[in-house]
Amino acid sequence: MTIGTTPLPIKTRQRKVPRYKLAVPLGLTVLRSGMPDKIPGSTTEIGEGGMGVVVASRLLLGESVRVEFLLPHTTTPVHATALVRYQHEHRWGLQFLRMPDQQHSIIRYWTRREADVLLTGRQPKRAPASVPPVEVKPASAPLDIDEPEDPNRKLIKRRIVSVAAGIMLLASLVGYWRWHQGWKELEAQVAAAESAAAATRVRVPFDVMQQRTTHQVVPEYPEDARQAGVQGTVVLDVVVNAEGKVTQVKAVSGPEALAPAASEAVRRWRYDPYRVNGQPAPVDTTVAVDFRLPGK
């Protein structure tokens, strides 16, 4: 398969729900082919339902990721599982999926009390020019002068605030521990399911599966590789489930600069289900993606 010179357009979905501006370091983990891939990045905005991020690697729309970040003026990191919902240039929009109530409370508290009052993409409302200024007249009765607050009351308030903060911190730690345990259980279930599926898969040659292809996506030639004159064939080990969907992709040979683009495209390929004794069965196969520059 030869790649042309015209890059394929990337479809994105624009987010309509505004979020608060925020730029803090972000740790992001993607579970691909059963292996966690940690990616550094930074937040650009945040809301109660999701966030915008800039990361050092390309994400896939619809992909589930794990994020960790620390809000300003807080001491407990926020951990959440999110779904990649849209892309705009080099920014990605994430929608929170699984988050303990304590973690969600931290975000709600921060967005309502600490965040900038200007929402992303909105301007503050201005009073109409035609509305005349309201004149405030002094009250006829003398104003009451606030009396100094009782020191005992101040001490009681401080203790209440300290106890509430301690309870919130303890609840956050317990919630994070439960969330972390749940993530471990999920990874263990994924590993067990992959091991069981590998035992039942059959090996099918590339040319046989090529004839059963029902949908192919042409990979986009990476611009850095194009400018550097990198070309060649990327060979991928692919797992296709009983429904004909590609579930796992692993590059085994070829230029490293071209492997991510080839893997991303092949993940969206679809096949007519391979049948064993008349029943659909998962298979292991190989896919070769050829990258060639014009005139070379």
Structural description of this entry:
The chain is built from 5 helices and 15 strands. The strands form 4 sheets. It has a 6-stranded antiparallel barrel with strand order 2-3-4-7-6-5. The protein has 296 residues and is of the alpha+beta class. Helices cover 27% and strands 30% of the residues. It has 2 domains: 20-120 and 158-190, Thrombin, subunit H, CATH 2.40.10; 203-291, TolA/TonB C-terminal domain, CATH 3.30.2420. Helix 1 crosses helix 2 (151-200).
Structural features:
296 residues; alpha+beta; Thrombin, subunit H; TolA/TonB C-terminal domain; 27% helix; elongated
Any chance you could write out the topology, listing elements then pairs?
Layout (H helix, E strand, L loop, with lengths): L19 E2 L3 E8 L2 E12 L3 E6 L8 E6 L8 E11 L2 E8 L2 H13 L37 H50 L1 E2 L2 H5 L2 E3 L7 H5 L4 E9 L5 E8 L5 H8 L3 E2 L3 E2 L2 E2 L2 E9 L5
Parallel strand pairs: 8-15
Antiparallel strand pairs: 1-3, 2-3, 2-5, 3-4, 4-7, 5-6, 6-7, 9-12, 10-11, 10-15, 13-14
CATH class of the largest domain: Mainly Beta
| Low-confidence blocks of residues | 1-15, 117-145
Number of strands: 15
Work out the oligomeric state of the chains in this entry: single chain
- Beta-sheet strand percentage? 25-35%
CATH topology (fold) name of the largest domain: Thrombin, subunit H
Number of helices: 5
**Major sheet characteristics:** 6 strands, antiparallel, barrel
- The overall pLDDT, averaged over residues, is 80
Could you state the CATH homologous superfamily of the largest domain? predicted glycosyltransferase like domains
Rg, rounded, reads 27 Å
- Strand order of the biggest β-sheet: 2-3-4-7-6-5
- By secondary-structure content and strand pairing, the structural class works out as alpha+beta
What overall form do the CA principal axes indicate? elongated
Through-space gap between termini: 15 Å
Q: Summarize the helix and strand pattern as letters.
A: EEEEEEEHHEHEHEEHEEEE
- Helix content estimate: 25-40%
CATH architecture of the largest domain: Beta Barrel
**Count of discrete structural domains:** 2
